Known about the structure:
Layout: E1 3-7, H1 12-20, E2 25-30, H2 44-54, E3 59-64, H3 69-79, E4 83-86, H4 91-104, E5 109-115, H5 119-128, E6 134-138, H6 156-165, E7 170-172, H7 181-188, E8 192-195, E9 200-202, E10 208-211, H8 213-224
Parallel strand pairs: 1-2, 1-8, 2-3, 3-4, 4-5, 5-6, 6-7, 7-8
Antiparallel strand pairs: 9-10
Helix pairs in contact: 1-2, 3-4, 5-6
Amino acid sequence: MVISQIYSPVDADEALRCVELGSDYIGEVTGIGLSSKHNDIFSVEHVRGIFDAIRGKAVCVLIGIERDPEKLLDLCIATGAEIAQNVMFDHEADIRFFELRNERMPSLKIMKSVFVRDQASVDEALEAVPYCDMIILDSPGEGTVGGGTTGKIHDWSLSKQIIDNAGVPVILAGGLGPDNLAEAIETLHPFGVDSFSKVSVLDEEGRLVGKDFDKVAEFCRIAHSY
């Protein structure tokens, strides 16, 4: 079964509904002093409330937009995250975060974000493997926090190189929805799949309103059929 991750339910009730519909992982984003065009960055207290509501029902993924490894680990501790998705780290920060995790929160899993642009992204992913437990591959985008949330796919041939050679679980993100998920899974055979834009309801300015539960249900159904 391919696991499903739904990114950024707006509150605990919505997160619980996504879990009921099949979401295996719930990803929430928090950070200090940053904003997003989608309005999907929540306070530490808000994320903690969501994680407390779903704990034991789905895996709690903190999508951290901190460049400082110590600050990201502090956020993971404060929210009770089970997986830390480090979006903004370079290789040196990857190593430092790995060391801090081992010292202070060894139960925490590390999910390395890689924005797939070109062959250098393959090298980046494989270089990070010794310092993470899993990788998530997303599409780069201007004007978004660290990339991602573009609703666009990237070059899957590059992602396939990573999936085939990483030796750790790889989650595929970037423009995935019920319309193209089966093709993505059959082409790449990832460990998991992630969706935001194509299972969300956005207002006229492109800001997050909430989840489209019919699309969430179909996304999870397709993922779990493999």
